[in-house]
Structure formats: structure tokens, C-alpha cells
Amino acid sequence: DGRWYRMQIRPYKTTDNRIDGATLSLVDIDVLKRHLAEAQQAKDDAERANGAKDQFLAILSHELRTPLGVMLLHSQLLCRDGMDPRVKRAGEAIERATNTQTQLIDDLLDVSRITSGKLQLHPEPTPLNMLVNSAIEANRAAIAAKQIELSVDLPTMLCVLDVDPTRFIQVISNLLHNATKFTEPGGSIRI
Questions:
Q1: Buried b (16+ CB within 10 A) or exposed e, 126-151
Q2: DSSP character for 184?
Q3: Dihedral (CA of 167, 168, 169, 174) sign
Q4: Residues with Cβ < 8 Å from 128, sequence gap 6 or more?
Q5: What residue ranges in 4-70 does DSSP mark as E strands?
Q6: Buried b (16+ CB within 10 A) or exposed e, 86-96
Q7: 161 φ, ψ to 5°?
């Protein structure tokens, strides 16, 4: 195990500009090199850990989506017309909880994609009212469960945004979800 040094050689010139010798300087940079190597190792470890986290989230997402899909299907069967009202309410509660869990998984994966720079946006011209109505529909059951009055005031003229519809609906839906969560039962929300 050797040590690291930085060596500089400079020519020594006479008054008539002839090289008559040289000066040599050695600087011990061993500690600096070791710190740089440790920093690189820490960076490599962090990148490996981040990759392992992304892989874990992908596996977790896949493994959780399958049972959530089954729960959603069966909750919808319980909500059919003609079912006992108590069974129907239970089915609606299961459906809301399942949709919430699915959204949490999607949000978690999005955070991972954002931090790793893998989130891609696909903007396209989309009517604002379609974006807002989709977000409202995604939160309608939770709003109704708390008996919240929802008022919507959108422009009467066609308003088209150049956005990624999925992500924009997600933003509005998250805002509406939080508004619903923190509004007292019987309160009101205005969009």
C-alpha cells in the first residue's frame, strides 16, 4: 500500500534563459485521495441502494395490485342493485378503501420515478372541464360519504390545456382528496 503524492518539476533558468536545473516539489495528497475514494464508494453505495429501492417498489406494487384488483371486483359485486343495503354499504366502503390503497401505490411509484428522473410526461390538448370532472369522479364517493357540498365553477367557454391528462387529473384529484379529508362533515368545497 503506497502513498499518493503530487509531484511538480519546474525548470530553473539562468538570466540568459538557459535551463540550469530544476526544482522539485512533492505534496502528500494521500489523505485527499482516500477521502475522494470514500466519497465515490458512498456514492456508489447510494446508487445501488436507490436501485434496490426502485426494484423493491416495483415488486411491491405488482404484488399489491393483484389482491387489490380482486378486492375491487368483489366490492363491486356487493354494490349491485338488489343487494341488502348493509351489504351494499360494506361493498362501497371496501371499494373506496381499495381505490385509496391503489392510489397510494401509484403515488409511491410516481415519487420513485420522479426522484430517479424516469417520470415521463405526455402533454396533449385536453379540455379543462374533462380534467376537473375526472378528478371529481375519482373522489365522489368520499365527498358523498362526508356529506360535503361540492360546487364547481368552470369557464363557460371551452378552455383547452396542453398537459399530460393523467398527471394533471392526479394533481387535481390529490388536491380534492386533501380538501375532502380536511373538510368537516357537512362542510363545502369549491372548485
A1: bebeebbebbbebbeebbeeeebebe
A2: P
A3: positive
A4: 154, 155, 159, 160, 161
A5: 5-13, 19-28
A6: eeeeebbebbb
A7: -110, 145
Q: pLDDT digit string (tens) for 144-167?
A: 999 999 999 999 999 999 999 988
Residue with cell 516539489: 25
Q: What share of the chain is helix, strand, coil (3-state, %, to 5)?
A: 60, 15, 20
Task: Indicate the burial class of 61 (C-beta count within 10 angstroms; 0-12, 13-18, 19 or more).
Answer: middle
**CB within 8 A of 53, min separation 6: which ones?**
112
21 Rama sector, left if φ>0, alpha if ψ -120 to 50, beta otherwise: left
What's the N-to-C CA distance of the chain in angstroms? 68
pLDDT digits (tens, 9 = 90+) for 124-133: 999 999 999 9
State the burial class of residue 106 (Cβ atoms within 10 Å of its Cβ: 0-12, 13-18, 19+). Answer: middle
Quick one: which of 135, 73, 61, 129 has its CA closest to 101?
Answer: 61
